[in-house]
Amino acid sequence: MSLVETSDLLQGPEALLAEHQNPAEAAARLEQALERIARAARAPGTPAADTTEIAARLDRLIGELRAALGTTPGG
Q: N or C: which end of the chain has fewer CB within 10 A?
């Protein structure tokens, strides 16, 4: 799976919960998606610009998720 394809997975926590209302199931799906993104980012020939964009999007989404859950890194 390329980073272009995995970027479709980065639609935000609302997309995960809209399809599956169980938060634990949504968290498991998110973890699987993040693992696929990490594998794709490590693949030989992955353009650095793609990984930079994906990292920024992930940081934003993780921040939104932490805010929704009322948590902070390490907390």
A: C
Distance between CA atoms of residues 45 and 64, nearest Å: 30
Residues in the chain: 75
28: Cβ–Cβ under 8 A, 6 or more apart, which residues? none
The structure tokens listed for 6 are: 């995995």
- Model's pTM, two decimal places? 0.58
pLDDT tier, 60 (very low <50, low <70, confident <90, very high otherwise): very high
Which residue bears the tokens 């997975």? 9
Determine the number of helices (DSSP H) and then strands (DSSP E) in the chain: 4, 0
Neighbours of 37 (CB within 10 A): 22
Mean pLDDT along residues 39-63? 86
